[in-house]
């Protein structure tokens, strides 16, 4: 069975159909791209998957269970995490606290332990501190652990957001334009990082991105969305040579 299966998914806002009869299957361990022009419906798909929006029609199954109608926190508990096109950190908290928050849903101690500061509370907090610091080391942010998140440079905020998503211990990671605002060297480093975390954390990744060097360099299969509908799917080589995709999105200059 696919890890994620989307059947005839549609979403309308009034008279506007933002997503129309979408069908996507993603197998465990794959690294998949979702591309298309601005307004094609890519982020709407992410919002439907993660419970931000309710679907109008269709079905979404994750790990062979229906996730339609779940709240965002319930989707996260099921094993799906995301980043956002516009960074959404807890900007006034420290770097390490941003990551520790992600671990709280997996915490083993109870509310009673927290209120009365029982030994299980302290051992749980110590474990979260250790796990959060290990993630920060992976993203070269351990020296910034006690800095306020909003004071990080843009590229480091992007990395912190990915680290926080990984703190929820997901099976499927949704990355919404992770290279936005990055220079070519940062994008190249991000490409290597995405490959590495897929292998290290045994993740499946669905990626929205406008930077075609990143998409073509890292994705194994790509879905192309235009006006809320899939117009093509295939390998990077098949996509960049598809006449419909060239006309709708890539243009003749893409090689």
Structure in words:
The chain is an alpha/beta fold and 255 residues long. Helices cover 39% and strands 23% of the residues. The chain folds into 2 domains: 165 residues, Rossmann fold (3-Layer(aba) Sandwich); 79 residues, no CATH class. Strand 4 and strand 5 form a beta hairpin. Helix 3 packs across helix 5 and helix 3 runs parallel beside helix 6. The radius of gyration is 19 Å and the shape is globular. The model has no long low-confidence stretch (mean pLDDT 90).
CATH topology of the largest domain: Rossmann fold
Neighbour order of strands in the largest sheet: 6-7-8-3-9-10
DSSP strand content: 15-25%
Shape: globular
Query: What composes the largest sheet?
Result: 6 strands, mixed
Total number of distinct structural domains: 2
By CATH reckoning, the class of the largest domain would read Alpha Beta
Count of helical segments?
10
Q: How do the SSEs run, as a string of H and E?
A: EEEHEEHEHHHHEHEHEEHH
Cα separation of the termini: 34 Å
CATH architectural category of the largest domain: 3-Layer(aba) Sandwich
Measured as a percent range, the helix fraction is 25-40%
Kindly report the name of the CATH homologous superfamily of the largest domain.
Answer: P-loop containing nucleotide triphosphate hydrolases
Uncertain regions: pLDDT < 50 for 5+ in a row?
none
Strand elements, count? 10
Give descriptors for this structure.
single chain; 255 residues; alpha/beta; six-stranded mixed β-sheet; four-stranded antiparallel β-sheet; 10 helices; 39% helix
